[in-house]
Amino acid sequence: MFLTISARAIAYKPLRFILTVIGLAVAIAGLVSLMSFGEGARKAIRRGLESYKPRILIYRGDFFMPTPLVPIEMADSVKKMGVGDVYRLVRIAKPIGFPPRGMAIVIGMDFASKIRFIEDYTLLKGRDLSDSLKREALIGEKVAQTLGYSLGDTVEVGKGKYVVVGIIKSPSGISTNAIVVPVNLLIKDYDFRNILAVSVVPKNLEKTDSIAEVLKEKFPDYQVQTTQEMARLTESMVAIGDIIRFALSAIALFVATVSLFAIMAITVQERTWEFGVLRALGGTRKLIFSLVLAQAILVSLLGWAIGVLLGLVIIKIINAVAYQKLGFEFATLTVRLGLFSLLIAIGIGVAGGFFPALQAVRKSVREAIGRI
Q1: Which of 128, 123, 169 is CA-nearest to residue 145?
Q2: Could you say which of 80, 116, 279, 322 has the lowest number of CB atoms within 10 Å?
Q3: pLDDT (tens digit, 9 = 90+) per residue, 176-205?
Q4: Quick one: 206 exposed, middle or buried, by C-beta within 10 A (0-12, 13-18, 19+)?
Q5: What are the residue ranges spanned by the domains of the chain?
Q6: Under 8 Å CB-to-CB from 256, ≥6 apart: which residues?
Q7: CA triplet 198, 223, 244: central angle to 5 degrees?
């Protein structure tokens, strides 16, 4: 009953409510598209934990900035402790193409270790690297597409040139934009005296936390973190970003709420006589209040539905550009984000319709009918 009467009320002044719905849709689309970056970051964190085999990282400074600050010799010191398999990590950001058409991540494969830092890639063409002294490279599917490379072509990394022997892809997207070469040659090409990090896979994974504590005591001047600790730290950083993104969205949401409030207030004034007649026929104040509030919520739900669809289109465009330039997608619309935006939309409907609904029930039947 409420929805039928509310829908008829909306149809009575269609242009007014169409414009209101559009305003709500734009606000919800902005919220969804901005917050999708945080959801995408969380998804990337989960992918990273699934894709990275190392459980402990030893580094200095910021791990996410490719600045090598750990002495190369540290890997040997950790190996002598017998805590598990050790990997020397070197990771470099490299523009691809001229003029640059994207960004690749150069990763060194450590043949001295039994582990691969990224273990989830599969070969599309060619073969894997087999020798730490051969100047051979694996390139991600996106790098190959951007540069038009195929097996046997040469890719330049630093001062070195490497023959492409394999093209790889990754379900997580991490390897899609990668160039993988032997780590010792990568260090030589860039004249590095340091590496980005030393990665460790304990022999007994159940002892990961205790081994991390031992390494913290051994190397007090360095950051020693398990991948779970890094995930929690990154999650907190994403949460801070969510607050900032929501604050930006809140401006548009506030304007949408005020607009809905204004439209509902005007509508209540125009329908005062109608409410008076309804009261004279036996309608209660609660019924009138519910009708007005239902109308406001219905308008906001229509705005939410259109806004989510518009936000999804925006996310698709953002991801298409990101994949073209960077080789991965970093925005996603999750069920959690959809439900969150739905609650926001319902809140806008309640906020925009509550006081006009109170206004509708305050007048007596005589006052309301007397306005004819």
Answers
A1: 169
A2: 80
A3: 788 999 999 998 988 888 888 888 888 887
A4: exposed
A5: 2-46+234-369, 61-221
A6: 23, 24, 26, 27, 28, 303, 348
A7: 115
